[in-house]
Design a protein that fits this description.
The protein has 136 residues and is an alpha+beta fold. The chain has helices at residues 3-13, 22-29, 69-83, 98-106, and strands at 34-39, 42-49, 52-59, 88-94, 110-120, 126-135. It has one domain (3-135): Gcn5-related N-acetyltransferase (GNAT) (Aminopeptidase), CATH 3.40.630. The structure holds coenzyme A (COA).
Length: 136
């Protein structure tokens, strides 16, 4: 997927946090620490630095949801993180994002903390970020 395609698909999935631009995706993809996983039109961007892996973003287009693509991407992310030498994985997710929080919990992530008023919705509402992590 090109940075432009990633930005287009990301914009279909996110308002909070705001969608990432094509140059932002290009910047991540240029990093040797980052990796992109793709299933159909769904994608996941991860990054392993030393023994820690971060799930940077994950998006499945609205018309492809509920078919196991998100779960498959998270499983592939865990395997790729291990093969790159990570021993733990972490992520941030908006507190009101129930589908993603359920998906991550089902994949073995547990809440480790939260960041107060970390995101701002397009309507100006402040939302906490939930921090989740799991050993690999
Ligand atoms: C979160 C997201 C990636 C899930 O993708 P998906 O392909 O629909 O997920 P799957 O079909 O693989 O579902 C896997 C699990 O996720 C959870 N889940 C998915 N959609 C859900 C929903 N609408 N409500 C509650 N739980 C849900 C469930 O635990 C589900 O397992 P189950 O089917 O056994 O109940 C997708 O909804 C999305 O792209 N959302 C917008 C972007 C986003 O929030 N990204 C993650 C934050 S970084």
């Amino acid at each position: 997927m090109t940075p432009e395609t990633l930005a287009r698909l990301h914009a279909l999935s996110f308002t909070t946090p705001r969608p990432w631009s094509a140059p932002e995706f290009a910047g991540f993809l240029a990093s040797p620490f980052a990796f992109l996983l793709v299933r159909d039109d769904g994608f996941l961007l991860g990054r392993v630095i030393a023994d820690e892996s971060e799930l940077l973003t994950l998006a499945v287009p609205p018309d492809r949801r509920g078919q196991g693509l998100g779960r498959a991407l998270v499983e592939a992310y865990l395997n790729t993180s291990r093969s790159r030498g990570a021993t733990s994985a972490f992520l941030e997710v908006a507190e009101d994002n129930t589908p993603a929080r359920r998906l991550y919990a089902a994949a073995g992530f547990a809440q480790t903390g939260s960041r107060r008023a970390y995101y701002r919705s397009p309507e100006g509402r402040y939302l906490d970020a939930v921090l989740m992590a799991r050993p690999l």
